[in-house]
Amino acid sequence: MSRTVIDLDDEALEAAARELGTTTKRDTINTALREITARYRRLRALGEARELVAEGALDVDILLDKSKYRPTGGQDGVHDAGADG
């Protein structure tokens, strides 16, 4: 963890804290950094999935067809939809 002195936009910080549900500047900034990183990772993954669909390497209709899911039985006898495991 590093310590850095910076000037912050107090209104933007307060708005971010409200959106994120944080109470301290430190938590707000750290949470915002994690959130933006996760957001861009998801956007990249979505872009890659779109490319796969465009190339025909991924069929979204198959993925969305829940009748194709095979139930799997756990040790407790409860059946979950998903991959074999």
Automatic annotation (TrEMBL):
Which InterPro entries is this protein grouped with? VapB_antitoxin
- Per the UniProt record, one Pfam family is VapB_antitoxin
Indicate what this protein is called per its UniProt record.
Type II toxin-antitoxin system VapB family antitoxin
